[in-house]
Amino acid sequence: MGSCSSHAAVIPDLDNIRRETGFSQASLLRLYHRFRALDRNNKGYLSHTDFQQIGALAVNPLGDRIVDSFFPDGNHQVDFSGFVRVLAHFRPVDEEDPGMRDPKQPEPLNSRMNKLRFAFQLYDLDRDGKISRHEMLQVLRLMVGVQVTEEQLESIADRTVQEADEDGDGAVSFLEFAKSLEKMNVEQKMSIRVLK
Amino acid sequence: MALLAGRLCAVLGALALALPRTGAVDEQPGDAHGASQGFQIVTFKWHHVQDPYIIALWILVASLAKIVFHLSHKVTSVVPESALLIVLGLVLGGIVWAADHIASFTLTPTLFFFYLLPPIVLDAGYFMPNRLFFGNLGTILLYAVIGTVWNAATTGLSLYGVFCSGLMGDLKTGLLDFLLFGSLIAAVDPVAVLAVFEEVHVNEVLFIIVFGESLLNDAVTVVLYNVFESFVMIGGDKVTGVDCVKGIVSFFVVSLGGTLVGVVFAFLLSLVTRFTKHVRIIEPGFVFVISYLSYLTSEMLSLSAILAITFCGICCQKYVKANISEQSATTVRYTMKMLASGAETIIFMFLGISAVDPLIWTWNTAFVLLTLVFISVYRAIGVVLQTWILNRYRMVQLETIDQVVMSYGGLRGAVAYALVVLLDETKVKEKNLFVSTTLIVVFFTVIFQGLTIKPLVQWLKVKRSEEREPKLNEKLHGRAFDHILSAIEDISGQIGHNYLRDKWSNFDRKVLSKVLMRRSAQKSRDRILNVFHELNLKDAISYVTEGERRGSLAFIRSPSTDNMVNVDFSTPRPSTVEASVSYLLRENVSAVCLDMQSLEQRRRSIRDTEDMVTHHTLQQYLYKPRQEYKHLYSRHKLTPSEADKQDKEIFHRTMRKRLESFKSAKLGINQNKKAAKLYKRERAQKRRNSSIPNGKLLMESPAHNFTIKEKDLELSDTEEVPDYEAEETSGGIEFLANVTKDTASDSPAGIDNPVFFPDEDLYPSIIARVPPWLCPGETVVPSQRARVQIPQSPSNFRRLAPFRLSNKSVDSILLVDSPEERLHTLPESTHM
Known about the structure:
A: mainly alpha; 2 domains; B: 832 residues
């Protein structure tokens, strides 16, 4: 929409972003418009405030955590390339044979592992590479209705951790996390088809 | 309700017209008795009640059949209900015919168009997911208009071509008859489509496109049908170019006129419901009667009646839902669903029954088969061509799978049947052939395609082979993924910002809502605002409760003005903050309370909770991602209240969390550890302060005047709280009751009532930046004392601002979060 009138050239650093994220030019342009729309006052970057203006996020139990994931390393602003980089995790996996990929290239952002890693870091708040029981409980608390008692929640958290925990350290490492989901079609589940 | 009853009678009466007498035999016993002379205590008057009685029995049979179908989940999950009903109709028709040898019950056009169709279409309009519908309006219109014309033309012409080749044998028809037939068979039927698609879970965009197309193509069908019918009447040779132009013009008149009638009646309806405050009991009736009038009016003006009632429903839903009381809204919802669902049941059953009549059956293998082939093939071609064009402009591409489903989902239904029955036999010589072919087409599409579309959809998608129960991790993370996806979609702006939509919502807010909504409704119209309002209310209530408990409201005045004077705000000192925010409330609920509780509970809990229980709990109580419950229309199910509840819960949490994180970010407090300590300290302070004998808020502050000018309702004193209660008659009271209970047990939570914080100085700047839907409804007048303790420097003021948990809502809070905005948004707040 509107892709004819406005030009993709307005996007700074277009080529690098394209290479890194794999987005098509049209998608990038659309995302750029979105970025500009979210960016009040044309600051050139987004702050927490800008994200929190999206009303639907307030009723998403994980909304705030997802917003936080746009701001790695305690930054308070995210520019367009950072914005797109996060969204690139959700690009559908290309149909072409993954074996054809140049091994020297880094794994694309939308690979299965990167999709999982993105989800993982939403749980792993203290960034120690493990989802502790406490962290699991926090997520559960966010995602489960008030009807469930704290006691039940704890029991669920315990079981969830135990189920995935293989080395018995009482926490779920990234590998264990990925393993527990190996049967799931993450590629499909964590892709948005608009983001091409 | 009286109106409803009246309408029901009308329906029954009409059914009676359609249903002739089977009671002939049954009358005998009554007559035999009647021979005796004098007064009789009991008489048997069958024919007195015959017609409505039979109708009621049919409805009962249909409803019972539905019960029976749903007894077996296996059957209904494989076979669509519409197909089952048609089969049932065939069986019943067979029985009746075997007994009587007359096809006595048929679906007549009058019955169908006047009484069965309107409730279904109204239901579709009233529960239409507006945003989705208008977001895809262009696509829908293209399919509905061009697609239908294409289908009609190609089917008609191809059949005529085959006819000319002599394959069909000798038929008394011409080109126009074929085009007429093509036009009535071309339209995808809203009733059939929905009946099938509801059970096939396709994505919402696809759903709305097929569904919207089936609703909107009515205008095209009506026009094509009328044009060709009149051409047939005139006679093929006398049709001139002028007539063709007239036909095209009439399309615009019919469609736009129908839409206009719908919009006008929606306006009327919204306006009427604005003033029904004192006649709550008949409120729901208006919705039905006025929308029905829109249908009849446009029928009277020979405009598209379906468009009229659809748009009446679409346009009025927002205002009506806001205006009528909660109970009335529930009544409307259930009545509408009941009527629509019932009408649908009857339609399909009678379609089956109508087919059992040897008189209408004229078989022509070539014609029937070719019609089936042509409508399927041309639909597919049409869909592919149009999608190819559309995909160049659409943001959400329609993929191959979608196209297959769309082509395959082109079900024909009762509209085509009713139209074909309307044909005049003297002009259209092969009417019976057309009727039987239409019936075959309807049955084929509804039963065969209806049966196969579900497996087809599943087969086309990547199949999930595993049958096992997913593990806990998968269940939990799977749901988390859904939420993540939904959030990312919102962030990436899938639907995007639309200039027209912004314009419209502006106009709606400034003009329409003011005219069409009650004042109270205007204020609480936004859902999020609503939630926020409740949050505030909750705070206010707990605050008052606390006040009553202490016998004084003095504690509002936050701790000692004297220690405020020289506070250094540049260093993160919690002293003012504790005093001013409702963080106590939050802490209480989220961390302190629950943890204590859980500690205790853990001790006595039975650790070996069964896996099953856990799974079950998760299954039941995990929040559903937004996409799953919004946006979707279902004729048979009502679930919005669940969704609202969930939204509220999450919203409450989010707001609390944001406040907490804001606080810790700005002031460097480690929430979890210090919370309890702060809490205690603050309570101590409170206790000290409560001894200050000052139970009344000062009213003569300049702020007060300001507020009065700006708003029509203010919460200037605690006494105002009951007013809220009165305003929100239905939901409010229960809510209050709950809250009061909660807080009573909750110890002095919510002493620091955010509602009582000043914010009017920020007002202009906030207004400028708050998105329209967040624009403030009411505000709060702060006490003089409260204002006194506002720090004197602008930056400090800004820093405090977020703790006004007022109805400026999220944004006012967020506003403060970005330091770079401080400078230029800051008004001269120092004058205090």
